[in-house]
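Notes continue from the previous slide.

Worked example: a multi-chain complex. Inputs as given:
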Amino acid sequence: MTIRSLSDLDVTGRRVLVRVDFNVPFAKGVEPRTISDDGRIRAALPTITRLLDAGAAVILMAHLGRPKGVPAPEFSLEPVAKRLGELLGRDVAYATDVTGPSAQAAVAAIQPGQVVLLENVRFDARETSKVAEERAALAAELATFADAFVSDGFGVVHREQASVTDVARLLPHAAGLLVEAETKVFRKVLDDPDRPYTVVLGGSKVSDKLGVIAHLLTKVDTLVIGGGMCFTFLAAQGHSVGNSLLEVDQIDTVKGFLASAQERGVEVLLPQDIVVADAFAADANTQIVSADSIPDGWLGLDIGPKAIADFNAAIKSSKTVVWNGPMGVFEMAAFADGTKQVALAITEVDGLTVVGGGDSAAAVRMLGIDEAGFTHISTGGGASLEFLEGKTLPGIAVLED
Ligand code: ADP
Ligand code: MG
């Protein structure tokens, strides 16, 4: 099934309601509220500009944080409207409510080529309601504002929410450029990957990624495991892991993964060596040990140099690489090298490379790695994981007709 794209939608002279992901971080404790990373706003610019250039009037819907269905000044989108105006180089009107008098007035006044941002859609409890009728009621109010709907908030397409799915059922609709690009790349790596195909998984907990591992085991040639989750794998192989992150209740599941990988001929690469520390601290004492002899009392916070060499050889000989989850506690310089070296190896791949996961994308930026070295860095942490789990994303499915 294909999803409708912007070019399938007639927008000239029309009012177009666009769901975007403007859930940006703010600098802690700074007043007035200051956006610390505007990447998500920038990611929405191509679609907004394209619609404005085509002569549409653009009405933007977005959420910020978890305001629990009531207006709260600390979750207001007003600073986002200001930043968007600066990035677009045009005035952005801002409504102080979602579908109330301010939104109605702003929408009534809007002309082709103009933009209005509605206030945080989660200030209305119906947005995230589990009751379909409540969501539909909010969607119906929103739908009166426009002639068409464009879905461009990739970070929310895994959610059944009024501004994501319900409104799409009421208006002619299409995917925005960001949602289209994200969807295309995930479909390619899931349905038609060039081989050899390597998936690199890390991050903190194996339990967060059980669905991803189970699904990808049916697709890949090589599965590389680092990060905190590798210790549950090492434990499943009978090694002791000291004080490293270990999910005892997942050992049996992981044994099952290892057996199923063997059955399918999927190679599983675990780190041969580990950087261990005597405390979870930036200035802890550290040593490099073999993965089968982690000393009692020490904890593994990064993969070692042999593991890096081993992982990178597999990565560089691949035609498709999907990476989700840092190889170590990259937030501390002493444990960042595994993540940095693996990320750099991925940028050298002659093929399609995809970074999924919020912390992995943050690591790329924090470690100063050129983002252009990857084919695609996903903007949606949760949505990208659900894609990799093989799930149907409701916000994508609704665009498929
Ligand atoms: P993503 O958001 O990319 O999916 P996760 O949220 O699963 O990634 O995991 C990111 C976190 O995993 C990071 O904060 C990192 O510090 C942590 N992490 C990586 N390796 C280890 C380790 N060996 N021990 C504890 N935490 C780890
Ligand atoms: Mg994360």
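Summary box: The chain has a mean pLDDT of 96. The longest strand covers residues 15-19.
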